Amino acid sequence: MIEARHISKRFGDQDVLKNISLSFHQGKTNLIIGQSGSGKTVMMKCLVGLLPVDEGEISFDGRIISNLSFEEMKHIRQDIGMLFQGGALFDSMTVLENVMFPLNMFSTMNAKEKVERVDFCLNRVNLPKAHKLFPSEISGGMKKRVAIARAIAMQPKYLFCDEPNSGLDPKTANVIDKLIAEITEEYDITTIVNTHDMNSVLEIGDKISFLFEGNLWWEGTREEILHTDNAELNNFVYSTELIRRLKS
Amino acid sequence: MFRLLHDIGRYLLLMRLVLTKPEKKRIYYHQVFLEMEKLGVDSLGIVAIISVFMGAVVTIQTAFNIDGPLIPVYAVGFTVRQSVILEFSPTIIGLILAGKVGSGIASEIGTMRVTEQIDALEIMGINSAAFLILPKIVAAMVINPIIIIISMFLGIFGGWMAGVVTGLCSSPEYIYGVQFDFNPYDVVYAMVKTVVFAYLITSISGFHGYNTQGGALEVGRASTRAVVHSSIAIILFNLILTQLMLA
User: So what's the ipTM on this one?
Assistant: First the structure.
């Protein structure tokens, strides 16, 4: 379980996160939703330790990470997999090299075991024949899948996904959503997904946290989100014509 | 002034991160060899062209300017050798490499920053500053002296070619001049400058790339800043090293 207790983050005179307390449970797909600029990405960067928090503390299964040095944080980071908005694949490496990279850096596997692990991860994301391609030669959806394969290569305990569906068509977005939910359940990991896509919310959101202007505005399940009387949340949820029509 | 001090402070803090023990030495060695190819071998073409023409021009200019009976013709070869070894090869080629290699490093690392590839390295628990910049520094400090020695030979060869082809000096006279009063310390001085310039080019360009924020426009700006600041640092350290080693 990942817990954030009373965390605040400020850039200059702008409060981006204001005294937020949240918990994310193991084996569940935990969603952080909110409009652009609501603080979702900053929240995620604070959770993974890419940004230090100004106040409050963050713990991973009871281990407080908010005050750890880079060296101390290293061991916890090897339990973290992250899927970035653009995939963040290394341009100079092939798909095979990208997925093998964390194994080369941190595992004690021999070459054959590493190749087997890469094959397993790429098969798991339904990309069995992409080994030799470079990131520039594959589509956006494939990039996201390779990034998921790289994120799970070290068998992480925690998976973070920052806007995994951005820039994808609805069908591919659905494939990525389902993949994330399946992996979460299959490996019993703690998954946190940043999104503003209501399809994702309704498809995979086990627990949903709504951020509004840097505050934690609402928490609940995907069943509850459709029947809330929270005005700001309703404004966000029913912002598209499609969802409004489905409601009526 | 405050901005300059602030940047120097940030540069030194980054260097503290860069000059640390590598996580997995084997991977770093591999990276160093890849960088040697990218930073050194791929620059050989431009270095060769510039060196040959530089030597040729120095020969012609020297020959036309020593038109007195008291100055022997072999002074042409001597002047070319001294100019090429002491200044043209280490400093001018250093400035050329600051443009070619420096902008490449800044834009490569800057693009990695804005596309979150550096964040991806950090998330994995890798010291991204060391992983990206240290192999480039080591590779340049090893390969640049070799490039500069090649440049020296080509510069002197270009001078010989120009002298013989134009008839400004004969081949034996030129070769005698090149060998005349040779002091090996000049090459040591040139190599020290080359190694220092290699460090400056890669570390300053790495610094600008690593601290890029924003998008494509900022990557371009970081690349330009890298070239400008590397060039200024080269000129400044050229003066300091010359004063320290030759004065």
Answer: 0.85
